[in-house]
Amino acid sequence: MAKKADETFTPTGKVYKSTTLPKPTRKKHTTLGLKDEDLMPVFRNMYLQRRFEERAAQMYQKGKFGGFLHLYIGQEAVSASTVHVLNDDDDIISAYRVHGLALARGTSPNACMAELYGKKTGCSKGKGGSMHFFDVERHFWGGHAIVGAHIPLGAGLAMANKYKKNGRIAICFFGDGAVDQGSLNETFNMAQLWKLPVVFVVENNGYSMGTSVERHSAGQLHKRGEAYGMKNGVANGMDFLSMVESLKDVVEEVRETSEPYFMEVKTYRYRGHSMSDPQNYRTKDELEEFRSFDPIERLKDYILKEKIQTQKEIDEVIEEVDQEVLDAIDFAEKSDAPDDHELFEDIYVQEDFPFHK
Ligand SMILES: Cc1ncc(C[n+]2csc(CCOP(=O)(O)OP(=O)(O)O)c2C)c(N)n1
Ligand SMILES: [Mg+2]
Question: Which residue's alpha carbon is nearest to atom 2 within ligand 1?
Answer without folding.
Answer: 147
